[in-house]
Design goal:
Layout (H helix, E strand, L loop, with lengths): L11 E4 L8 E8 L4 E4 L4 E6 L9 E6 L2 E2 L3 E4 L6 E2 L1 E5 L5 E5 L8
Antiparallel strand pairs: 1-2, 1-7, 2-3, 3-6, 4-5, 7-8, 9-10
Length: 107
């Protein structure tokens, strides 16, 4: 069973801890079952590949590995820094995410 996450695909996130602490990137994929996300340019690994039809050369490929969502915070659309996320009903009665730092709705 997976609970609702504060991060969605396409969000710009800030890395709180780990090797890439202080960096920001765009979320490419979210894995709610594992509580992990793949962020562009964050947590890069070297993957060794054999020559195949897809990569005739083979060799070592750099790619992003999943990072736990507890190490990520959404970047505030107004103030620019990391912020916590809340949920509230907007004027149309729809539940939306908002940045607790600025109170701005997150698209």
């Amino acid at each position: 069973m997976s609970k609702k996450l504060h991060i969605k695909k396409g969000d710009t996130v800030f890395v709180n801890t780990g090797e890439d602490k202080g960096k920001t990137g765009r979320v490419l994929e979210v894995r709610p079952q594992e509580q992990r996300a793949i962020v562009e340019g964050i947590n890069m690994i070297s993957k060794h590949t054999k020559p195949s039809a897809k990569s005739p050369q083979g060799g070592i490929i750099k790619k992003e590995a999943a990072i736990h969502i507890s190490n990520l915070q959404v970047v505030d659309p107004v103030k620019g820094g990391p912020t916590r996320i809340g949920r509230r009903l907007n004027s149309k009665g729809k539940l939306v995410r908002y940045a607790k730092k600025s109170g701005e709705e997150i698209k």
